[in-house]
Amino acid sequence: MDFSYPAEVEQFRKELRSWLSANLTETVRAADRGRGRDAAAFDTLRAWDAAVADAGWGAVSWPHDYGGRGATVLEQLVYAEETTRARAPVPLNVIGMNNIAPAIMQYGTDGQKRTLLPRMVRADDIWCQGMSEPEAGSDLASLRTRAVRDGDDFVVTGQKIWTSLGHRADWCQLYVRTDPEAPKHKGISCLIVDMTLPGIEARPLVTLNGAADFAEVFLNDVRVPADALLGPLNAGWQVATTTLSHERAGAARLYAQVEVQLADLVTDLAEHRINGRPALEDSATVRRLGDLAVRVSYLELLCKRSISATLHGGDALGSASLAKSVWAELGQDVAALAFDVLGSDPSAQRWVDRRLSTRSLTIAGGTTQINKGITATRVLGLPRR
């Protein structure tokens, strides 16, 4: 594994750093901390996303035809590192840009691409993804929401849950069952749904830390135009598994993110005392910090192995899945140390929030159990059961 940055990549880094230095304000960073609670913060982040997109930094990995920069793998690596270390917010439409946009690029009509993608990257429209249901969480193929063709429409009835930004969304990439007689993987279709259609109700879900990032969405005889179908009828499984082939260095954000969190924790601990002594002189605390620092280095190695595999035509999925599991456990352990030492002191409120929110890290974006299965088969070569 060898990363050497050509002159053009270093120039890319220099331009990005310069733009972030000139435009990223503490107001924007503060809004990011309140994005799940505060409507004003949400509006600030929406304006930030528009500014980022207008400056050409909104979707660097996307092809030029769709408003991106066509960034190389190494440029994507630099982008992830620099934006994370600058504490720039991730886009409001991060799920849309990473998961939904690839499907629109591959399966959408020219009109959908021209209309939807530029508004997505600017956050002019907020997107959600209707996958999980009360009886179908990680198992998408078990979904029950139904769409029945009736003339020029599909009539959709069902429920989605844990829908990120579902109560704020303008559009939804909705997965529905269109052939209940087919094998469960083969009877699913994907629709692009206007969230203002009659019969749609989105109720925010408040999580442990008081944020409302998710919603449950109810669909009661919603008439969705048939031309909202994305991809072939009953080919929703293929649409769902479409990956952003040009987004190939996202793993860099994992180690950079935990690196920043650990640096923030050290800064906060420098102002704290344990039994009258500076916290950073407490041997137990320092030992835990050291352990976390070593594990962050291991995580960086894992992520860069995944990126290196991409650069050299290898299998990046196994190491990327393992990196996601390590990142999730590390995030939980950093928050646990902060809470253990700083407690519920009002000055440490962000760590209280993080302690609560990090409980989801081993579930969101692929459960640890699923990722361990991928690691077992793709990295260790163990047989499937």
Describe this structure in words.
The chain has 385 residues and is α+β, with helices and mostly antiparallel strands. 46% of the residues lie in helices and 15% in strands. It has helices spanning 7-23, 26-33, 39-54, 73-85, 94-107, 110-121, 236-240, 252-269, 283-311, 317-342, 349-357, 368-379, and strands spanning 127-130, 146-150, 153-164, 171-177, 188-194, 200-205, 214-225, 273-274, 277-278. The strands form three sheets. It has a four-stranded antiparallel sheet, with no helix packed on it. The longest helix has 29 residues, at 283-311. The protein is globular. The two termini are 32 Å apart.
What are the salient characteristics of this protein?
385 residues, alpha+beta, four-stranded antiparallel β-sheet, 46% helix, single chain, 15% strand
Give the total of beta strands.
Answer: 9
Helical proportion, percent range: 40-55%
Number of helices in the DSSP assignment: 12
With strands numbered from the N-terminus, the spatial order across the biggest sheet is 2-3-7-6
Shape: globular
Q: Structural class, from helix and strand content? A: alpha+beta
Question: Strand-and-helix sequence, N→C?
Answer: HHHHHHEEEEEEEHHEEHHHH
Using the CA coordinates, give the radius of gyration: 22 Å
Could you report the average pLDDT, rounded to the nearest whole number?
89
Low-confidence stretches: none
Summarize the biggest pleated sheet.
4 strands, antiparallel
The proportion of strand residues reads 5-15%
How far is the first residue's CA from the last residue's CA?
Answer: 32 Å
